[in-house]
Amino acid sequence: MRKKIIAIGGGENGRLKSNGIHTPYETKQIDMEIINITGKQSPNFLFLGHSQNDISSEESYFQVMQNIYGSIFGCNCQTIKKHELKDNIYKVQDLINWADIIYEGGGDTKGMLELWFETGFDKILRDAWINGKVMCGISTSANCWFKTCSSDSLKLQLKDDSAPMINVDCLNFINAFFYSSL
Prior knowledge:
Elements: E1 4-8, H1 28-38, E2 44-48, H2 55-72, E3 76-80, H3 82-87, H4 89-98, E4 101-104, H5 109-119, H6 121-130, E5 134-138, E6 146-151, H7 153-158, E7 166-169, E8 174-178
């Protein structure tokens, strides 16, 4: 089975910012290529907002991605919430099996990976990747597929813009270091 990872360095997706203004939609070409790689006209798109630090951000991020992949491109869209990794592993496995595309949004890489390692979700993702699912991540979640990465997670976790970049052990699907200078 051919393994597929799309690591997207960054870009805006048309989300609504706190000041009420929408960001531009810069990732359209990449989103179209992700769909194309599946070989399906209407693939199943599974969004993971596990890099978000609160439930409302996780839900609003899914709404943005559902608008893009569902409304614009006609994909079938679902999400797995953070709490479901601990509460409903059968639902999680069913959704992973259903998905053609598994897409993690940007945010707190360190916190996301800690959750995945704690719940065993890292192993579920590895199996999905080995079985040919299209694995995607943008911004700080582009790096989760690599062996290690640089991350600004401390800035997010401590709410301190002066916090240093750190190295984080990742999923090791790709034996390489992902560097981001942010």
